[in-house]
Amino acid sequence: MTRIATLSDTRNNCHNCRLRSLCLPDNLSKDDLGELDSIVQRRKPVARGAYLFQAGERFQSIFAVRTGAVKTLTVQANGDEHISGFHLPGEVIGLDAIVSRDHPSTAIALESTSVCEIPYAELESLGDRMPAVQHQLVRVMSRELLAEHHTGHLLTRRAAEQRLAVVLLTFSERFARRGLSALRFRLPMSRLDLGNYLGLVPETMSRTFRRLEEQGLVSITGKEIELVDICAMKALAYGNEEARAATA
User: Fold this and answer.
1) How high is the pLDDT of residue 243?
2) CB neighbours of 72 closer than 8 A, spacing ≥ 6?
3) pTM for the full model?
4) Which domains does the chain have, with CATH numbers?
5) 220, 145 contact by CB (below 8 A)
């Protein structure tokens, strides 16, 4: 039976964590894994609405999401908040602060969330002795940048229905990488937050969800989404040629 995508619990150390393949090198020895595990700080769950860090704070650690979900946002010159991303278990937050050493964005828990905090200075020191860790950090950074660029490109100058289809398919792929259902999943964010991310006002978001449902592409119950016709969703999101390539 396929597991519906929910953001549930994981084990308490790197060796047993079911998400380790998403954020750790796969060629670490047991001793190396134990050394890496020794620098990881596992916080108590962060309550919904609580900050992991705020823009302008001095950068000290990166964070790997274990359970729950996190949104990152920036504040525009006019004071408006813009949500720049949503982060699921196995994904790493705070990488955008490595160069400047100050956080350019704010991270807020979307629901009760557990994270692994990894002090960056200790991670760098460990990486000097364990090249696999250093290589994995570069790989994770590259993966995040590529995903952000790809999604941003797909959302540019597209109609509301296409934008929403792109994001729902992106979540489908991300949940599938975690061994969860690609067709039935729960969105951790509110429609208001999703609309902010997509650049759509709440009324447009409601109409767009309703149109996708009326077309028989999705079934919606609260935050639970079922992709009823994923091929048609891909055709809507990417165009017929890209949809064929995506399903090949």
Assistant:
1) 45
2) 83, 84, 85, 86, 87, 93, 105, 106, 107, 108
3) 0.82
4) 20-132 (2.60.120.10), 157-247 (1.10.10.10)
5) no
